């Protein structure tokens, strides 16, 4: 078990991949598996959730499904501000 | 208002944070008679509508009084229920899967004062706070969803349709005259947070118009690829349009023929609102069940394609439901669930006996499963 | 004096059934009066504005809520549903009106102390309106503002020793019937198994792990009071393998009219005297029962455990002693490919702590679904797409005739190469030695 690459490299790969995506800021968990294709899905899930705790990523929930993107990025972020 | 901190420090969210503890363990909440007799129950009996006794091999008995309640419930009312439980039930109570409340006492002499207390409590405007019932071969509480009280994609209200229906069916909440139990469920759109697909009678909110598109704002408020991906039938495509002032904007186009009016795009993109006064209303379904008793569990079938929203009391809808219940009560054999009855007499007779008009909308045309619902025999009734 | 005129929804105050409108007004009045001098952390008139916005929906026939996807508590992907009113100037009290799902204790028993403590938090920090309970089983706290979410979560975990429930692509809050705690039909301790699975899979419950939602439900017997078979991706339904226990004296008492049949469930109508031939023997779906010479016989190998005879004569008949669960998979509501009732996966499994066999099965299902499920595809839809054979293979289960209603009626069997002697690779030249071109 555990990542085959070091944790920081995995996190950097995720952030860089997300920054390259244009016009779309949120992704399903399965999309993250593809960013680290050589890793076990459970390990990718763990690192993604870890990055949420570190406030690099954030969840977006439709209520029935969850998407994940870079924190504060995306058009919904602005519509939901002003609490 | 002065902000009262719980102890949470927004600058250090992880400080003293407790997570992943789950719910409290259930056995801390047992009334003593339940704790003592768990796993030892021999049999039960419904003494009268809303009142059950369970008898244990230890000789102990627990008397349960079941009362209906609106799923939408205030803390004031919950505190009142707690006050009753403190007075009669040693500070314990439970809720059922179908939003009823159960008050339990450990001896028969405590039963009558509890029943009277519960039955006597009414709201100022006259409805019961804690009506006894919901047992046996009758109609219990309706499980439902949020509707206009809290949801962003409902095609009708949930609490209101339920209140209107339960008022009409109230006698059968407090009686056990039906051939078998009859379960009514309500979901306010086809996403069915309230999973009504296996109920004897299901009230389903339904939209009939594809979403509107707020072209001017769509690309400012929504990410187009996400709106496109939200659609379960691939009816949404990226597109471009020209606003009246000549500005060209990126937006989306909806293929109306493919749209199933689920509202998933609106969840993802607030520039695609779905709700419509004339478009929205009610579908009625019937004949589903979840129990394995006698016959296998089965799906509810659509029996009325559309009834307009007639808030605040939905009279056409409640009258149709009432007709179904009465036809079933009069015609079904003892132990037959509504769906078993409809299958025995034939669905063609169901429509006749319930005085419901059959329309072309009720013939399935969605994917492969549709074929198996058409008739492939010369056996039918005129 | 009410803040908003509500002539339409006022019409839902009459009639016998408990009126949610009356109840909302009760809460609005209680907040306005504020007898206990509470420093409300969200607008005092939140319930007035909720009545107001609901009245507007009744006037328009349209909802006035918008979805919010970002709000939540730190590090959790579920448990909070964001809501905003689309008329915030008219109804500032409900401009932000988020829901929190609180994981209910298994079986939904409560002490008044627990409920009162919870209500105190919700009175201070929320609207004072709840759902007892939501469709999945959670206690739903309906309506608060974003800054209060973390405060409520902190109070819940620190003061109440209680956690949030699931939403989104998470394991949803598991739920169960009351099981052996107050039901003689229950074939296993549903509350214990439900609680244990809830605790075991806290990470999956709070953080998105799956292509879509995933539900467990636990029914104690085939009567299925929590609808596990219709509403959960993995349904655990209590059952047994040995004889139904018969008390012949009690059977006679039912026949003789001394005991009330159906535990009194049909007492609202005069159905005539109890007729065991017609009402029990004749309705048994397998015809495996016989009542002759004052003795009831059940041919156990033919019995499919439908519960009918037990429901009719609970004092005479009891479920067997070799108990466990039947596990079904894939039930779901219709979106998008149509509704599904659970499909039989494991005919029988013993339920014994520490539930290793249950865990092993759950994790195999999850591994398969995480690997091959598409985004927003429920397990049931994956099974339909890839076939039941594949599901059994992935769960290391042997195919049994119990798995089907009937065998396939088409012969289009797709053989795997390794199943056919010699495999698919053949030598055409060797073939041509005996067959001309």
Architecture overview:
The complex is a heterotrimer of chains A (83), B (382) and C (437). Chain A is of the alpha+beta class and 83 residues long. Chain A is 47% helix and 14% strand. Chain A is built from 4 helices and 3 strands; from the N terminus they run H-E-H-H-E-E-H. In chain A, strands 1-3-2 form a 3-stranded antiparallel sheet. Chain B is α+β, with helices and mostly antiparallel strands and 382 residues long. Chain B is 25% helix and 19% strand. Chain B has helices spanning 32-37, 75-88, 111-120, 159-168, 170-173, 215-221, 224-230, 264-268, 315-331, 338-345, 347-353; strands at 41-48, 51-56, 61-67, 72-74, 92-95, 101-105, 184-187, 201-206, 236-242, 248-254, 281-286, 301-308. In chain B, strands 1-2-3-6-5 form a 5-stranded antiparallel sheet. Chain B has a 4-stranded mixed sheet with strand order 7-8-11-12, with helices on one face. In chain B, strands 9-10 form a two-stranded antiparallel ribbon. The radius of gyration of chain B is 25 Å and the shape is globular. Chain B starts with 31 loop residues before the first helix and ends in a 29-residue tail after the last helix. Chain C has 3 domains: 7-159, Alpha-Beta Plaits, CATH 3.30.70.2500; 175-241 and 324-418, Sulfite Reductase Hemoprotein, domain 1, CATH 3.30.413.10; 245-318, Alpha-Beta Plaits (2-Layer Sandwich). Chain C is 31% helix and 15% strand. Chain C has 15 helices and 15 strands. Chain C has helices spanning 7-10, 20-33, 46-60, 112-125, 146-159, 190-200, 202-206, 228-231, 248-255, 276-281, 308-312, 356-372, 379-386, 388-394, 428-432, and strands at 65-68, 80-85, 99-102, 109-111, 129-132, 139-142, 175-176, 216-219, 234-240, 245-246, 289-292, 295-298, 317-318, 323-329, 343-349. In chain C, the strands form 4 sheets. Chain C has a 5-stranded antiparallel sheet with strand order 1-2-3-6-5, with no helix packed on it. Chain C is globular. The chains are: A alpha+beta (83), B alpha+beta (382), C alpha+beta (437). Chains in contact: A-B, A-C, B-C. At the B-C interface, strand 1, strand 4, helix 2, strand 5 and helix 4 of B face helix 2, helix 3, strand 1, strand 4 and helix 4 of C. Strand 5 of chain B pairs antiparallel with strand 4 of chain C.
């Amino acid at each position: 078990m555990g990542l085959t690459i070091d944790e920081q490299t995995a996190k950097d790969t995720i952030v860089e991949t997300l920054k390259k995506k244009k016009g779309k800021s949120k992704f399903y968990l399965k999309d993250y598996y593809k960013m680290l294709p050589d890793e076990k899905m459970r390990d990718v899930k763990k690192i993604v959730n870890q990055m949420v705790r570190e406030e690099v990523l954030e969840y977006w929930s439709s209520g029935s499904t969850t998407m994940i993107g870079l924190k504060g990025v995306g058009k919904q972020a602005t519509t939901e501000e002003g609490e | 208002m002065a902000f009262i901190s719980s102890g949470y420090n927004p600058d250090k969210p992880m400080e003293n944070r407790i997570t992943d503890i789950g719910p409290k363990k259930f056995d801390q909440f047992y009334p003593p008679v339940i704790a003592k007799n768990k796993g030892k129950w021999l049999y039960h009996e419904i003494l009268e509508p809303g009142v059950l006794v369970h008898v244990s091999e230890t000789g102990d008995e627990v008397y349960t009084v079941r009362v209906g309640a609106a799923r939408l419930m205030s803390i004031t009312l919950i505190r009142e229920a707690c006050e009753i439980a403190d007075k009669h039930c040693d500070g314990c109570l439970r809720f059922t899967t179908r939003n009823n409340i159960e008050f339990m006492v450990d001896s028969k002499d405590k039963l009558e004062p509890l029943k009277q207390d519960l039955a006597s409590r009414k709201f100022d405007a006259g409805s019961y706070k804690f009506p006894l019932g919901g047992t046996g071969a009758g109609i219990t509480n309706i499980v439902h969803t949020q509707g206009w009280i809290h949801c962003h994609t409902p095609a009708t209200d949930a609490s209101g349709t339920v209140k209107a229906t339960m008022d009409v069916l109230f006698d059968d909440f407090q009686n056990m005259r039906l051939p078998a139990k009859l379960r009514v469920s309500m979901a306010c759109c086809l996403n069915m947070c309230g999973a009504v697909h296996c109920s004897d009678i299901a009230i389903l909110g339904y939209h009939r118009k594809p979403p509107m598109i707020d072209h001017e704002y769509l690309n400012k408020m929504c990410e187009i690829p996400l709106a496109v991906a939200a659609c379960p039938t691939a009816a949404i495509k990226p597109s471009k349009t020209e606003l009246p002032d000549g500005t060209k904007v990126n937006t989306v186009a909806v293929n109306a023929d493919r749209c199933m009016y689920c509202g998933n795009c609106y969840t993802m993109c607030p520039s695609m609102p779905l709700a419509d006064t004339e478009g929205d209303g009610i579908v009625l379904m019937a004949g589903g069940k979840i129990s394995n008793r006698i016959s296998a569990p089965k799906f509810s079938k659509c029996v009325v394609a559309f009834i307009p929203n007639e808030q605040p009391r939905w009279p056409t809808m409640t009258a149709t439901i009432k007709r179904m219940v009465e036809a079933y009560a009069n015609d079904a054999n003892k132990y037959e669930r509504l769906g078993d009855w409809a299958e025995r007499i034939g669905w063609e007779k169901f429509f006749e006996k319930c005085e419901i008009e059959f329309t072309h909308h009720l013939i399935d045309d969605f994917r492969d499963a549709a074929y198996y619902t058409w008739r492939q025999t010369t056996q039918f009734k005129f | 004096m009410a803040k908003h005129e509500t002539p339409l929804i006022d019409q839902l105050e009459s009639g016998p059934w408990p009126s949610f409108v009356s109840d909302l007004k009760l809460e609005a009045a209680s907040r306005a009066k504020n007898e206990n001098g509470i420093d409300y952390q969200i607008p005092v008139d939140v319930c007035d504005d909720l009545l107001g916005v609901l009245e507007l929906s009744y006037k328009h026939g349209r909802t006035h809520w918008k979805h919010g996807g970002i709000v939540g508590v730190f590090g959790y992907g579920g448990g909070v549903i964001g809501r905003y009113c689309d008329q915030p100037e008219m109804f500032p009290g409900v401009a932000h009106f988020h829901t929190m799902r609180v994981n209910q204790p298994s079986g939904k028993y409560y002490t008044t102390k627990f409920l009162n403590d919870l209500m105190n938090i919700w009175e201070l920090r929320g609207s004072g309106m709840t759902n007892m309970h939501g469709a999945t089983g959670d206690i739903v706290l309906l309506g608060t503002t974003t800054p209060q979410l973390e405060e409520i979560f902190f109070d819940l975990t620190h003061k109440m020793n209680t956690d949030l429930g699931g939403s989104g692509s998470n394991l949803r809050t598991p739920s169960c019937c009351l099981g052996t705690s107050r039901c003689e039909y229950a074939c296993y301790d549903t509350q214990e198994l439900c609680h244990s699975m809830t605790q075991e899979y806290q990470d999956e419950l709070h953080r998105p792990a799956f292509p879509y939602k995933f539900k467990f439900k636990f029914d104690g017997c085939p009567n299925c009071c929590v609808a596990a078979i219709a509403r959960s991706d993995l349904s655990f339904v209590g059952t047994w393998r040995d004889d139904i226990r018969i008390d012949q004296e009690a059977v006679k008492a039912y026949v003789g009219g001394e005991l009330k049949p159906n535990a009194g469930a049909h007492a609202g109508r005069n159905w005539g005297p109890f007729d065991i031939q017609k009402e029990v023997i004749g309705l048994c779906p397998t015809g495996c029962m016989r009542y002759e010479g004052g003795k009831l016989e059940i041919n156990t190998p033919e019995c499919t455990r439908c519960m009918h005879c037990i429901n009719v004569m609970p004092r005479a008949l009891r479920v067997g002693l070799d108990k466990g669960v039947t596990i079904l998979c894939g039930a779901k509501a219709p979106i998008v490919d149509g509704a599904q009732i659970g499909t039989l996966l494991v005919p029988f499994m013993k339920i014994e702590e520490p539930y290793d066999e249950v865990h092993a099965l759950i994790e195999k299902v999850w591994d398969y679904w995480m690997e091959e499920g598409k985004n927003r595809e429920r397990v049931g839809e994956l099974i339909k797409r890839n076939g039941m054979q594949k599901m059994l293979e992935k769960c290391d289960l042997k195919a049994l005739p119990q798995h089907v209603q009937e065998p396939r009626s088409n012969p289009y069997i797709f053989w795997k190469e390794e199943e056919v002697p010699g495999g698919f690779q053949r030598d055409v030249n060797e073939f041509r030695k005996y067959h001309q071109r």
